[in-house]
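User: Structure please.
Assistant: Input sequence and predicted structure:
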Amino acid sequence: MTSKTLLKVSNLKVSYGGIQAVKGVDFEVHEGELVSLIGSNGAGKTTTMKAITGTLPINAGDIEYLGRSIRGQGPWDLVKQGLAMVPEGRGVFTRMTIIENLQMGAYIRDDKDGIEADIDKMFATFPRLKERRDQLAGTMSGGEQQMLAMGRALMSRPKVLLMDEPSMGLSPIMVDKIFEVVQDVFAQGVTILLVEQNASRALSIANRGYVMESGIITMTGEAKQMLNDPKVRAAYLGE
């Protein structure tokens, strides 16, 4: 059975700070998949994510979502269409409380009861946020902010969730928790594109993977096969 292609990136070229960071990239994400985009720092992964979500202009190529080009659309338009992003560095609203950040995630919705129910759901998923619901987001630890950024993105009820380096800079215990939540969200039917430097963790939970090096895709395949590939292991798993 072939599943529907939700996100398709074709010959994508993006410059960032005067350098061509993405040099003609092709990949796709199908409905019901968890796809990992791995690669070392500076490979062009974050630039690719920013281009998909409309926060960086693209030089050439196209990005299709639900079969239509979304090139040039703003992030707010994409959220309305079900494409949400958990950005690198978390990007929480530091001067707002946890509850206000979650409410901001639902700004495109007007179903008050549904929003309240989803906030309760986020608190069930992230009990630590519930304990601190009236605390300012800027006073929380990095791991707590990452949970909040994930919860905020999920409040828009996305069809596709893009996650950029969710484990970066977190303690091993917090990394375990974040990956646990990624798997829970995926199990609830959300399609996920996960960008990660932690290649072994990313591939261990993904269906398929892409390797990005110096702005191009150099390898793709089933995630479990890639985990056992000597080239991937040597380059990204420290062997």
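The first helix runs from residue 45 to 52.
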